[in-house]
Description:
about 40 residues; mainly alpha; SHOCT domain-containing protein; SHOCT
Amino acid sequence: MPYRPKTELEENAMEILKKRFARGEIEREEFEERKKILNQSN
């Protein structure tokens, strides 16, 4: 599989996800699930 650098959008999505988790807006289970989905799009 060829290497593809992350786009700004994907990085921003991950940053938003981390911030939402840190603020307690989402539970760990949802955080982990969304993280997997974002990582699959790389």
